[in-house]
Amino acid sequence: MYAKDNTKNLFKLADSIAETFVSNNLSNYQGLRNYDFGPDKRDNVSCLSPFVSHRLIFEQELIKRSLDSYSFAKIEKFIQEIYWRTYWKGWLELRPSVWEDFISEEVEIYDESAYEKAINGNTGIDCFDSWINELKEENYLHNHSRMWFSSIWIFTLGLPWQLGAKFFMKYLLDGDAASNTLSWRWVAGIQTKGKHYVARPSNISKFTDDRFHPKGLNTVAESLNEEKEYLKEPLNLTFNETKKNNTLVMFENDLWLDGRENLYKSYENIFLILLTNAGRKIELDEKVLAFKKKALSDVQIYLDNSSLESPERLQQHKSFDVVYPSVGENLDYLREVQKINNTDINFITREEDIFCWEFSNKGFFNFKKNIPDILKKFSN
């Protein structure tokens, strides 16, 4: 996928892909979105998730473009899919201990042989082995295939969901702490208690256009159990675009510049920070790191005051502003710097995020009811 070409301006590439999809393929999305026709035939989905997850294109911008061409009723499913990512982020912001437990938990592998066969694509389950290779080669999987994959991993292979979630984070270009972690929890049946997802051979065959006919799947599995209950915590963030320091820090997961050009150009320095694998708890594939580095590098085209800096550079400053990176490894690193150096951090946040996250306190059905109000508020 995009991991193979590291020469194009990723902002322009995102814009071009969005324009092509909205013009040519969005009208058929609702009816074809669940089909995975294979890595060489992806025009039934947008393939924009790597760009959206790094905000090389902003969710609201993509929605606006789509609604400029089609009615809400015509593309409602596409808009909902975009907002699933927003919803998951908000849900995790309100329950950050879910991430903290996931990232710090040492999970025991009871069957090392099964794990090795799984991550090397040697299970004998045709679709699963193919998806392993596709994930490593393309750094992408269709959303429906991600659900089948995680279900087989958990219920047929009997492997810990946490290891599967970390495997996805390692290889996916669009790997996101909220969407990835919570989607795996949902499949396992611990995100929505007792509601799990079981992959069925007939469903896989149908929606892969008969490319696969898996044998031996566990189709009678029960959901996993989780004793701990995660209660909603206050969202200790408000909308803020007030500059307090002369240095701004940007990580790779919120790079959208439109509407903030004057704010960003007012800083003396903008540090573009990418955590290396040495600073991460989940080691990322080299192609994923290269994509993130390219995204950060492309910011320099538009902001002369920006430069790629090592994470250690932050430890030399007692205060700085930061484009809020959301719950995940980047925020974990900031908290560690803050703890060690007593750093004063001013988070720059987006009004769209703060507004939407308030609707993430319950399930997605509750969030979905508020989408018309969200669209109305940010329609301009």
Describe the secondary-structure layout.
Elements: H1 10-24, H2 29-32, H3 49-53, H4 59-69, H5 76-93, H6 96-104, H7 112-119, H8 126-138, H9 143-156, H10 161-171, H11 177-188, H12 201-207, E1 247-250, H13 261-265, E2 269-273, H14 286-302, E3 306-309, E4 319-323, H15 329-341, E5 344-348, H16 351-357, H17 364-369, H18 371-377
Parallel strand pairs: 1-2, 1-4, 2-3, 4-5
Helix pairs in contact: 1-4, 5-11, 5-16, 9-11, 10-11
CATH topology-level fold name of the largest domain: Serine Threonine Protein Phosphatase 5, Tetratricopeptide repeat
Number of helices: 18
**What best-fitting shape do the alpha-carbon axes yield?**
globular
The helical percent reads 40-55%
Could you explain the architecture of this structure?
This protein folds into three domains: 2-93 and 357-377, Serine Threonine Protein Phosphatase 5, Tetratricopeptide repeat; 110-207, Orthogonal Bundle (DNA Cyclobutane Dipyrimidine Photolyase, subunit A, domain 3); 247-349, HUPs (Rossmann fold, 3-Layer(aba) Sandwich), CATH 3.40.50.620. Helices cover 48% and strands 6% of the residues. It has helices at residues 10-24, 29-32, 49-53, 59-69, 76-93, 96-104, 112-119, 126-138, 143-156, 161-171, 177-188, 201-207, 261-265, 286-302, 329-341, 351-357, 364-369, 371-377; strands at 247-250, 269-273, 306-309, 319-323, 344-348. It is globular, with a radius of gyration of 21 Å. The mean pLDDT is 96. Strand 1 (247-250), helix 13 and strand 2 (269-273) form a beta-alpha-beta unit. The chain contains 18 helices and five strands. Strands 3-2-1-4-5 form a five-stranded parallel sheet, covered by helices on one side. By secondary structure, the protein is of the alpha/beta class.
